[in-house]
Write a structure and sequence with these properties.
The chain is mostly beta strands. It is built from two helices and twelve strands, in the order E-E-E-E-E-E-E-E-H-E-E-E-E-H. The mean pLDDT is 89.
Length: 193
């Protein structure tokens, strides 16, 4: 049975589910109102961070330009450039037992591609969610609907999957940022120039 979370809530992933090894993180959204001519392209990504909250190297940033981590623990399933259709718009596969032990957090983020020049922001996006699915059974374990109105933000940290006392947990974050992908890269220790 799926657990629905509110912003700030945390829930155990592996405690009580010792056999859980492979999960899918699905992200979905709809475009509310937009009169511009450019396509609306949202991009999911993951920053794999160490104890200091920063990536160890640029390759710890998994996105449409770097689809799989060298450890094979995190794999982006590809960029959906329109967000059309039902269900998950972008999916990230995570093998919890393959994540190197010196990584503590997987920050799951969404940005709007080229948002500034296209005059787009998350205030134009609706029905956004992130969910975690047991890849082996297809069971949805966790769902977090982002109901907050992000009127000017162009980047979101939607959730964190993190290790605590040897167990993996999920935190519903829902924090918005201005400055798009560059702002997130700076936060997690990547030079976005």
């Amino acid at each position: 049975m799926s657990v629905s979370l509110s912003k700030g809530q945390r829930v155990d992933l592996t405690k009580g589910r010792p056999s859980l090894k492979n999960i899918l993180v699905g992200l979905g959204w709809d475009i509310n109102h937009y009169d511009g001519e450019a396509d609306f392209d949202l991009d999911a990504s993951v920053f794999m961070t160490k104890e200091n909250g920063k990536v160890g190297k640029d390759e710890d940033f998994i996105f449409y330009g770097n689809l799989e981590h060298s450890s094979k623990s995190v794999k982006h399933m590809g960029d959906n450039r329109t967000g059309e259709g039902d269900g998950d718009d972008e999916v990230i596969k995570i093998k919890l037992d393959k994540i190197p032990s010196d990584y503590e957090t997987l920050a799951v983020t969404v940005t709007i591609y080229d948002a500034e020049s296209r005059l787009q922001n998350f205030g134009m996006v609706g029905n956004a969610y992130v969910r975690v699915v047991n890849e082996e059974t297809g069971e949805e374990l966790i769902r977090f609907d982002l109901s907050e109105d992000f009127s000017t933000e162009t980047a979101l940290v939607v959730a964190e999957i993190y290790k605590h006392n040897g167990e993996w947990k999920f935190k519903a974050v829902g924090s918005g940022y201005n400055g798009g992908l560059k702002a997130l890269c700076n936060q997690y220790g990547i030079d976005a120039e």
